[in-house]
Amino acid sequence: MTTTAFFSESGRFFGLYRMTLRRSRGYMYLLSALIAVFYPLQYALEAFKPLRADANAANLTNYHLYGFAENYTILTGLILTPIVLLAPLVLALAFNSYMHSKKAADVYHALPVTRGTLLMVHAATAMTIIAVPLAGSTLLVGVMQAIRFGPDPSHLFFLLLDLFGWLVCTFAIYAVTTFVCVCTGTVFDSFIFSGALLVAPPAVSWIGLALADSFLFGWSGGGIRVPGYLSPVTLAVMRILDGMTYGPEQGRMAAKSGVALLVWLAIGALVLLAARRLYRVRRTEIAETTASRGVLQFIVKLFGVAVCGGMAGLFTYLVQDPERAAPYTVMWTAITGLLTYLVLEAVLNRGFKTLVRRLPAGAAMTAAVTLLTLIPITGGLGYERRVPDAGGVSAVEISYNGVDGERSSVLRVKPFDNPAALQTEYIGSVLLKEPQDIDCVLSFHQRIVEQGERSADSWPEDDPYVYGYTNITYRLKNGQTVKRSYYGASVSAFLELLPLETQPEFLAQTQPAFFNRGSDVTSWTISNAYDSKYVQKSWPAADSQALFDAMQADLLARTTEEIARPQGALIANLQFLADFPPEGAERFSSSGAFAVTDKTPNTLRFLREKGVLDEIAADPVRCIAAGVVAETVFAGGSGAYIQTYNAVGVTENYAEFKALVDELRRSADTAAPAGSAEQAQSLDSSKLSLFEDPDDIQVLMQAAVPRWVYGEPVAYVTLWFDDASAGSALVPLERLPDSLRARIEHPFG
After folding, report:
1. Where are the bilayer-spanning segments (predicted)?
2. Count H helices, E strands: the chain?
3. How far is CA 264 from CA 163, 168, 174, in A?
4. Same domain, residue pair 42 and 132
5. Is residue 223 part of a domain?
6. What strands, in cross-sheet order, belong to the sheet with 534-537?
7. pLDDT tens sequence across 542-600
8. Neighbouring C-beta atoms of residue 563, cutoff 10 Å
């Protein structure tokens, strides 16, 4: 009678809530202590740590603080996250454990409250136990942040958003676990099924993405963050990791995770309402029974087969030769998937009685997972060979900055008041809309598809492989996008992009002469063709702009053949340095380089008018020796299918190079008789030769070029002058007389 009176009418919910909260205060005390130690205490230790006497205590860069609100330490992220995420799971299992005991269920169901009210009281109690310590710790961190670094509205906003994120994620975890508790008959089954439902969806998605990245040629690798939004567990972790990004990317990540939080808030509410509805009609007889059948067990088993089978396949791929890993991946996916099903069947049914009867279902699940694994291995249902039709493409974005892309970086500069506030963003791609430019990219893509994927060392010597991560994004006229990514391509494929180097649309996005201003240039460095002598000039802004204009005209007049295999005489090399514009710039390069040849008349005329060519002239007569390294493979930069050479060769010291050549000859003499074919072959393999004849030296110097197609035979020449200076040159062997070329290819023959 006392119980009935106490919980009468509207006071039933709040009365039961207060009593349940009072009886569960131990959970709150424990969770409060753990959160306090690993959140505000860790923040205080980092924020109030002693700094150097000259350090600015209010400058956040002096502290190792992370997160959108810069409120986490590394230890907080590693320890606090699992504590908070485990709390709703533990509380849901504890508060709903009575459902899994027939005697306890009879006692609870005898209370003068509806089952729905009982379920919601436990949910409210659990969220209070979680919310109070989180809110208190967040408030404490906010106060310490304001004391140490001053009030900051943005930090306060992100602190509140962070608290909201924790509450939403824990609420969703509690709702899912409660739903499972209603559907199962034991605490063990509830724990296993809840964990599977919360972790398996993102795990399966990430495994699928990993398989696509491993086997699917051209896979763009996009969407790696999307699986993190498929579970409140991984969403909470993703928010911690997203907070470690900087710049505009951090704002985009915060917006995406904010939308995901709202979605999971709605999902959690719907799941909890569904659990309440199911609980009203739940039979007490379910308690203490195992989940031997049903949709929930089927889903958990399928997730188990997919996760374990997929992980085994990926591990096999990692330990095998990638070219032969496909059959082993499929085999171990099937074997591990079936074994996983058998283990789950035995564990969930507490024995082996049902194994034989359920084996066909396990075989079907394993077959389905294995077939899905075969999709990326066999080409992704035509994904690998699919190239958009030119008529359906409105624009294309490609991560290619041209043959000079390795010599200057294109940046986006935000406006700034002082250098300390400078923010830049690297621009690694160009957007092309002109039909002829789109055709170039399509030809490049088609060539890659036709040649297919193979190991780098299996390409022919006359068409070698060039490493260079290339992303292509087609914007179709129907509003869709097509993305492809490649780790590299052959030289012949990259040469399909060469016509872009003559197009105004492409040059305007890649060449500093088109978007830099002369007023930002601080200095010019002009060196001769061999970089053995240089001068520095600080010309007025008008002159610098005039030089940029001259370079523009010469760049627009270039032909593809002159870019790939220059035939003109190399005269000088230009380099500039520029200050970042305070007002910002959509495209900007702080430095850049330009080769001056007799095919660049406008730039050449400017330099002649300034008289700098006479200051840097190199007299071939004064060159006393040339050290040559003959190669067909050049270790250039990423995507450097057109190679340059601006470094001195094996050594800057003439005496050391000569001693090296002599040492090679002596070593060959001891290994084989002097003058024998074996000795000549041994010496020729070194690819080193030394020329001291003035006529040979002059021929080498005259054959120097600024660039050449990667993979074609070239010589890297180091020049030594009588004034102790040294220079270098890139010399294609095809530009040399046959006799001199033979002596370079067979220096001791």
Report:
1. 27-45, 72-95, 116-143, 163-184, 191-212, 253-275, 295-319, 325-347, 359-383
2. 27, 17
3. 15, 7, 12
4. yes
5. no
6. 534-537, 521-528, 570-578, 591-597
7. 999 999 999 999 999 999 999 888 988 999 999 999 999 999 999 999 999 999 999 99
8. 21
Q: Which pLDDT tens digit goes with each residue over 613-660?
A: 999 988 888 999 998 888 755 444 444 667 665 544 445 677 888 888
Structural domain harbouring 542: 511-618
User: Do 372 and 406 have their domain in common?
Assistant: no
Q: Evaluate whether residue 79 is within a structural domain.
A: yes
Which residues on neighbouring strands pair with residue 432, listed in sequence order?
396
Decide if 185 contacts 193 (C-beta within 8 A): no
Neighbours of 251 (CB within 10 A): 11
Closest by CA to 718, choosing from 706, 733, 704, 729, is: 729
The burial of 19, by beta-carbon neighbours within 10 Å (0-12 exposed, 13-18 middle, 19 or more buried), is given as middle
Q: Which residues pair with 723 in a beta bridge?
A: none
Q: Hey, what are 624's tokens?
A: 């006393």
- For the segment 125-147, what is each residue's pLDDT rounded down to a tens digit? 999 999 999 999 999 999 998 88
Distances (CA, A) of 499 to 108, 448, 600: 79, 17, 18
Task: Kindly state the DSSP code that residue 400 receives in the 8-state scheme.
Answer: -
Same domain for 491 and 520, yes or no, is no
Are the CB atoms for 477 and 388 separated by under 8 Å? no
And the tokens for 30?
Answer: 């424990």
Q: How many domains does the structure of the chain reveal?
A: 5
Helix then strand then coil, in percent of the chain rounded to 5, is 60, 15, 30
Rg (CA), the chain: 35
Inter-residue contact 197 to 260 (CB < 8 Å): no
Mean pLDDT by 10 residues, the chain (749 residues): 46 83 92 94 88 67 80 90 95 90 78 85 95 95 89 88 95 96 87 91 91 87 82 92 73 85 96 92 76 76 92 88 84 93 85 79 91 90 90 94 82 86 86 95 93 75 80 93 89 91 94 94 94 92 96 94 89 94 92 92 94 90 89 51 56 76 70 52 66 92 90 88 88 92 80
Q: What are phi and psi of 485, to 5 degrees?
A: -135, 140
Distance CA 152, CA 169 (A): 26
**What DSSP character marks residue 706?**
S
Start-end of H helices in 576-619: 601-610, 612-616
Query: Could you tell me if residue 222 is inside a domain?
Result: no
In DSSP terms, which residues pair with 630 in a beta bridge?
A: 715
Q: Domain ends where: 286, 311, 329?
A: 286
Torsion angles phi and psi, residue 446, rounded to 5: -65, -40
| Residue 579: both structure tokens together | 């200050």
What contacts 198, CB < 8 A, 6 or more positions away? Answer: 89, 173, 176, 177, 231, 232, 233
E-strand stretches of 224-273: none
Residue 212 belongs to some domain of the structure: no
